[in-house]
Sequence to fold (615 residues):
Amino acid sequence: MNIVSQMCAIAVMFVIMYFYISQKKIILHTSKAFVEVWIAGLLSLFFDIFALVAIEKRSGYPHTATNIICKLYLWTVTWVAMVAFWYICVDIFRKKELERKWRKRLWIFGILTDILIMVVPIKIYDSDNIVYTYGPAVIITYAVTVILLALILMLTKKYSQAINPRRRKSMQVWVALMFISAVIQFIDKKILIVSFASVIGVLILFIMLENPMANIDRDTGFFNLNALFEYMKEAYGQGNDVSIVCIRYGSNENDFFTREMEKSIFFEVVSFIESLPDNYVFRSSANEYLLVFENTDCAEKTIGILERRFDKPWGGDNMTMLFGEIYYLRSTELVRRPSDILGLFQYAKRNRAEFTGRGVMLINNEVIEHIYDENSVENEIIEALRDNRVEVFYQPIYNTKTNKFTSAEALVRIRSSEGNIIPPGRFIAVAEKRGLILRLGERVFEKVCRFIVQHDIHAMGIEYIECNLSVVQCAYDHLAQDFIAIMEKYHVDANDIVLEITESASITEKKILLDNMNALRKVGVRFALDDFGMGENNMNAVYLYTPDIVKLDRSLICGIDNDARKQENVRTYLESFHERGMQVLAEGVETREECDFLRSLGVDLFQGYYLAMPA
Fold:
């Protein structure tokens, strides 16, 4: 009787379980399924040995008892295949209802299989040191096992997107090992390695998926982001709502720390966070942690503890103040996907000032809906750029000297996949925030240049086309270089282009804009200052940029025919700009009265719905 491979396999199984239970872990459905795999594998090994002993000692026991022991081993073989099948299903059937339904079906299938194995005959071969069983019971066992293993392979292919890639690969390797070992054992009955092969499969699962150390951050001992994703997928699948507190800390830029001080403070913070009760802690970046609570009251109590602690100094000398930013997601019910969790917190950090000042930022329903809305718009922009659904409309500009439309402003629009027009007020701010405005602006300018080339604009009485630049474009180092390259590509006369600029706040951005303007002016491009009258420093912008055209904002124009103060302001601006040789354009002219009054003041250009709609 050769049971060396089985004894080695049992030793390996106990080593696996020792390392598994001795490490910190989050108990997930996958963890429970792995334990079931381990138990089934261990039982299979023990009953394999019992069956071999029973066959060798069968002369001293009733024949029925030996057969029952051998059939119990066959049971465990099917159990291993069934728990392996269920292990691959944990990623597919995450919802409670589906899980219960399929688990019930698997149990019924297993019971029926075991009954069938128990009622049909089994035969024993024992000759020339070769021992094995055969007959209908064995055939049923192998048939069921092969079917389940084949189903595992089919599921790994059919649900490849739903199944963890490492789980899919591990199970494919395990199934391959089982098939190979079965073929080897079938060819040479002396080599009893099927049970050992199943143990190697369990070892692969442990190394690739279930090793708790893979989910631990080595510097802190907290869980890492991989553990967070698995935990949240589990919570979503089971319909469990959780609260998440994000604590992000740092020091003042002027503070200087030695490496030893920095390390000491780091471990002091880690020790403090570790002492907080009733939560799982996940480290999301160097100085940022996510605390997940299954109880909202515990989460809010912890927020109070965090606030009070970060109001006090840190360090061995009790002299170091750290700032602590706290973000609180009270409920994950409205979060659509587990993978969105980190994105929500990253967005909250980038846009904290938009939603709150100091203190705790609550990521409530309003914030979540705002984020998803922005994500939706961002996707629309990306798809529009990809599918060429960025469109340019042109709004004519009326010249009061010639009493004709002599120019037009290019206005960007996006057409949705359903064919609806998305207005710029919905997507421009998002494009700027999400880093898409440069691509979008370049696409618009290219379309404008193509329009100028494809249409004889001068024959149409159009002297030039105005094209908007966003604040981000104005502060882009290579704007002039890129735009000159586009004009050269389409052989566009730079005199046909007027670029509308928007005032930048920072000194660095102003310098970049001036450099871009100087380079573009050298080739003949002219400039218009947009939205004059909206900011406090617009006159300074006029002096700094010396635009060719100043566009008066709608706020200066609306109701001017009945507003003496607006009349006086616009009259003063006109005198100042005309003295500098600048043309003045009134934006948003929407009534005849406004039009007539502005004409009487001497405004050069009109633009607005009263005169012409964009087309």
